[in-house]
Amino acid sequence: MAPLLLLPFLLLLSSPYVQAQQKITLGSSLTPQGPNSFWLSSYGDFAFGFRPIEGNTSSYLLTVWFNKISDKTVAWYARTADPDSSLVQVSSGSCLQLTSNGALSLQDPTGTEVWNPQVVGAAYAAMLDTGNFILAAADGSTKWGTFDNPADTILLTQVLTPETKLHSRIIATDYSNGRFHLNLQNNGVFFYAVAVPSSPQHEYNWSMPGNTTNLVFNVTGMIYITLDNGTQIKITSGKISSTADYYHRATLDPDGVFRQYMYPKKFSNLYTQAWSVVDFKATNKYVPRRSAAETQVSSGTCGFNSYSNVDVLNNQTTCVCLPQYSFIGESKGCKPDFQPQSCDFDEAGATEQFKFVTMSNVDWPQCDYEQHDNIPNDQCQQLCLTDCLCAVAVFRDSDNTCWKKKMPLTNNVVGDTVQRTVYIKVPKNNSQQPELLDSNRWKKDKKHWILGSSLFLGSSVLLNIVLISVILFGTYCTITIKEIPSVQSSNNVGLPLKAFNYAELEKATSGFQEVLGTGASGIVYKGQLQDDLGTYIAVKKIDKLEHETEKEFTVEVQTIGRTHHKNLVRLLGFCNEGKERLLVYEFMTNGSLNQFLFGDVRLEWNLRAQLALGVARGLLYLHEECSTQIIHCDIKPQNILLDGNFTAKISDFGLAKLLRTNQTQTITGIRGTRGYVAPEWFKSTGITAKVDVYSFGVILLELICCRRNVESEMAEEDKKILTYWTNDCYRCGRVDFLVDGDDEAIFDLKKVERYVAVALWCLQEDPTMRPTMLKVTQMLDGAAAIPTPPDSSSFVQSLP
């Protein structure tokens, strides 16, 4: 095994990376124009020399670039040695010399030195095929190299040592220092957002369980951190393609995201001749709210009044403006496309002119100017709506805390850990708000006084008529309510849910046109409410009218209406009009887990693990934290929906069977979907919450392996049924077979093994042997030890 581990390094030593170098002798020079404008590496992969600045042919940078690709991607560029490390630009008459005393000196057309690496006594220079330009001593040792003084990029074989920094560019075509630093320190890798040109603001870090020694981009294309105890901690986790067939680089991009890229060396119809993202690390982690004394303000990852949006599937991070805001240039943030609320509006005027657009899982923690505790959500919105200084309200459900924020918003944090609902104040129409009349004009122009007086008197008369009408209408409604019971009370629902009428839902769904899914109890349609927020909804229409179906509808409304949890789809309302039975849910942007889990694109391992934990927590809530225990009875990937942040939410309680608090089991007909059904369904025995535990065990294995539980067409017989195969792999100590080809999961094999053990406990044939969902959650979290699961003689399986 040891020789195999040494093979990459032996290959490195025997490769052109080390051996092939052309010595650049003392006295050699380069000029920005002419035949001597660059020095090539031995195999021509890299070049060191002058590159014109895009859009400015009279200015040049001293750079290292990929020479054999069409766009000549720059991997290094010269900067001054001062703390701010400003960019070095020269004009066409400049000259770079390797002097007779072994120094490298860049002089402008007047002969003034503008840059040198502060090294003398070099015997020669060389442009290596690793991309490292070096000044070497007579014995071949490196006295100075571009690898030791990186700009925004690192390359294969490059090693960063503590206190080494990467500086992002301001934009892709401007090599000036941008807003972000990546700083390797003894205790981790730190990212900083900088309010250029001054103080840095800490964004997030990868703290380490030991002293950091190096950040390594090794010859196989892996990027990892080494600790002083020899531990290697992987940074990027994408699938690495052959370094013989691809160029590789990792860059701190202008948006503050650290991305690893690859580029095919040879043209082929199979490959796109362009840089593609292998993996990335984005600055969208939650940072705790700081005290005023600790606050340092910068524009953040994407500039003012914006936030970063991470596309998990495509490994991309984009900057997004707030609704009805637009970008100011490429890196300055966003501005409102409307006239902000005037402080001359009264409360009624503000309510009439403005509304809120809702977002979630994002915050700007440093922009609060007022906080309210223990107030309801609607009051939080009203406080912001009537406050002319408030541009955004942020509400935290867990403790009913409300924050009011004013512009500009800075230093956004994004992710599932940011448990906030955000309300962005925008005008009710997209047009500009009408300008307020200038009070001075009223004083100077009598016609305005007369017109204003007339308007005032007319408005007073109209207001009185409206008030009388409201009083009469209110009296009529009070009498009517007493005489005619409401839809809710007539159906004995008695829940704080909105009772929609059928026409309203028909209009919202455009006549029930766009189908989101079909289940045993009805069809689900996409819709959009005609409210101030334009809320998207999912409408489940119950088509069958049998007595059992109506009973099922009532049960579903009663149970879901009382549930509220991050990992459960929320019921917004219902329609119980005539023969129509409809349920109105919150809309889940990313659809069901089914389409991601078994599609062409594999979700990254960390996300799959997080989804498994989310489903477990949702089931824990249903089983143990509701006032009335709920057994779902149909847990499967199709019933696990994903919101815009890929948070798992359990849906479809239409097959749930309720248990009163003094009951422990119930007998019912077989429910659920084959392939996920627990063995006790076939034995006419009592059904408990352990049927959901069994189904969760199947889903957990599907999440681990990214395949269906049953794949009848698979060639290898022992792999057709996932539960059987997993049990065999676990007993043989080869859990790695289950995640073959998934580099990220293989790197985290201890967690994979832990999750497999939990799944095998969930799949025990005897329900009493299965853990509760509380225990499952604790074992997945690592908070509880996991004993070796018994080797069940067989896993009862119903084929689809």
From TrEMBL:
Residues 15-148 form the Bulb-type lectin domain. Belongs to the protein kinase superfamily. Ser/Thr protein kinase family. Residues 1-20 form the signal peptide. It comes from Setaria viridis. GO terms for biological process: response to other organism. ATP binds at residue 541. Its EC number is 2.7.11.1. Keywords: ATP-binding, Disulfide bond, EGF-like domain, Glycoprotein, Kinase, Lectin, Membrane, Nucleotide-binding, Receptor, Serine/threonine-protein kinase, Signal, Transferase, Transmembrane, Transmembrane helix. It catalyses: L-seryl-[protein] + ATP = O-phospho-L-seryl-[protein] + ADP + H(+); L-threonyl-[protein] + ATP = O-phospho-L-threonyl-[protein] + ADP + H(+). It is an enzyme of class 2 (transferase). It is found in: Membrane. It is a single-pass type I membrane protein. CDD domains: PAN_AP_plant (cd01098), STKc_IRAK (cd14066). This is Receptor-like serine/threonine-protein kinase. Its main location: membrane. The keyword Transmembrane helix applies. One of its GO terms (cellular component) is membrane. GO terms for molecular function: ATP binding; carbohydrate binding; protein serine kinase activity; protein serine/threonine kinase activity. Residues 510-796 form the Protein kinase domain.
